[in-house]
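Q: For a teaching handout, I want to show students what a protein-ligand complex looks like in token form. Below are the inputs, and the small molecule is zinc ion. Please produce the holo structure.
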Amino acid sequence: MLHLFDTRTRKAQEVSAMDGKKLRFYCCGPTVYGPAHIGNFRTFVLQDVFRRVVELGGVKTTHVRNLTDVDDKTIRDSQKNGVSLAEFTAGWTAKFHNDCEALNCLSPHIEPSAVAHIPEQIAMVQALVEKGHAYTSDDGSVYFRISSFADYGKLSHLDERELDLGKTANARSNADEYEKDSVADFVLWKGRRAEDGPNFWQSPWGEGRPGWHLECSAMINKYFGSDFDLHSGGVDLVFPHHENEVAQSRCACGGDFARLWFHITHLLVDGGKMSKSLGNMYTLEDLEKLGYKAGEVRYVLAGGYYRRPLNFTLSSLSDARSALARMARFDNQLKKAAGQDKLPSYKHLCNKQPELGVFATAWASLNDDLNTPEALGHVFSAMKATNVAELSAAEAQACREAYHFILSAFGIVLPEEEAQEEAPAEVKVLAEQRWQAKQEKNWAESDRLRGEITALGWMVKDRKDGYDLVKN
Ligand code: AMP
Ligand code: ZN
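A: Here is the structure, written as tokens, with zinc ion included.
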């Protein structure tokens, strides 16, 4: 059973479906005003690995991930581009979907958008006003009064920052995004402003539009009700976004809101923050133009432990290419030894977990707080420890099914073109002899054998702990 570190309680908690049927989880989705960058995809890929581990563990899920298609940024940039908000966000939504598919992310079961849920958002603001948690301001905006909710700050542990919520009684923030230092009443509904152009809706408080934090609360209430299993996003969302969601939802709907909180630490590029001005804010398309493949990007993103920052470098993508090639070679060896190329589907694997054998430790690491780098380490150890030549056809098939179970959890699709032809026995013997010579530091013999192997049309590529045979 999967355990995850929960942001609110700061403890490892068991992930389970409270209704005993389906694990209901919500992920804050993209703001569709440009291409998602690889930082965003770190979060979305790890949420995908999370979902796969839950499902492969035999628990069904309902995965909801929203699209933010109205906020300060989408409105600003649609106007800059001279197109309607709907047209502008539709284009970036399509791009996002293409990237997700290339990265082999499962589609959420429900993908609601903010614009498609305006009535639900207005109803939530109404409930908050009626219950005394919200108030209107002169410009037709509505604010949430944070001093009216005693638990405000519990999720993000604001008390440790020695902030006196009483002192913020008159402070207000009208921006969709703000920093932890500016704890303030936040905007639920924004009165119409000239810069919003045609993007406004009728409400009991006049024309305007929803504040950013509101949409997730309204959609969660619609699709899950007042209580659900798990909520997720990048770590930047803990405060204020998720804190504000908790306040809105619990005050408007009662209930406890999310039972568990899964937050993903940020991705860094070359050891620092990504930024447009540094030119290191890579999108998937940027990396593909540099010659890397989406599968390699996924490998790097999935392979970092979610509670540590991931330092992304281009050389990590080259390493991913070699790792995937090794994985594909191992798979080919198993396929040959099994004498067939049949594998259970993802759905089948979710219903019936194969005997995991040497891959059991990798599965255990995934279930222990989604420790993906440890799990990958176990996968490579298992590959190394398996002498495929000694397996019967049935054993090879069983091993391959277990292997693919773990690959499915990572969402790894093995590259076909890397699948190498197996070297003939004669070449393998020479390569073994050469490896021995090398271990004995008999360089002359090792070089002589390398020459023989090359003459037969093969190349030896040394690794730290062994070698690979590649056809010339
Ligand atoms: P946005 O499109 O800005 O609303 O962000 C979509 C998701 O990406 C959210 O869950 C963010 O928390 C997450 N995110 C943003 N930047 C990064 C980053 N550098 N590393 C990991 N996740 C990020
Ligand atoms: Zn959200």
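A: Two things your students might notice: The longest strand covers residues 227-234. The two ends are 46 Å apart (CA to CA).
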